[in-house]
Design brief:
Length: about 180
């Protein structure tokens, strides 16, 4: 008598979203929302430190301001998208991966821009470097949160549930 065991795994994924745009101020009370707001504020403060300096035209200041303003606008737009549930409406776009890559890149760019600004003897640049290092930490934390969410299979807004079922079937046959 021979026995054969056959195992089948069935994975069902259910995504639940509300596909309409609406204002939801609760996002700013979540950890990702707070981190995003902190990054926006730090971007702006660093930009202002450089811009109000007499030496803002120098390449170090221009590079820092470019990093700060691109971070400010991207984070600001993403904050608006989350507040109005645009990410939920367009849930098929991999928002978390986009933000993960952006935040990781911006943490690295802020490390470079802040180091270059801190190496000057200009006090405004050194103050901007401090806020840049703080923004680097903020973007690093945001990248870590996004990494955990991507690894868990989550979507940016809404909910996704995954059901895994395993079925085993044993077949016995008579052999002569």
């Amino acid at each position: 008598m021979a026995e054969f065991t056959q195992t089948a795994t069935v994975t069902q994924q259910q995504t639940v979203v509300q596909p309409y745009i609406r204002y939801d101020p609760e996002y700013v009370r979540t950890i990702p929302g707070i981190v995003k707001i902190v990054c926006i504020v730090l971007n702006l403060i660093g930009f202002i430190c450089i811009e109000f300096s007499y030496f803002s035209y120098r390449p170090q200041g221009s590079f820092f301001n470019t990093v700060a303003m691109l971070g400010f606008w991207f984070s600001g737009i993403m904050l608006v998208f989350y507040l109005f549930h645009v990410c939920e409406k367009f849930h098929k776009i991999p928002w978390l991966k986009i933000e993960l890559y952006f935040c990781a890149a911006w943490a690295a760019l802020y490390m470079i821009a802040s180091s270059v600004a801190a190496a000057t003897s200009i006090e405004a640049f050194q103050a901007a470097a401090f806020f840049g290092y703080c923004a680097m930490i903020g973007y690093g934390v945001d990248a870590f949160l996004k990494f955990k969410s991507v690894r868990a299979g989550e979507i940016a807004q809404g909910s996704r549930t995954v059901h895994v079922q395993q079925q085993q079937q044993t077949v016995s046959t008579l052999t002569a």
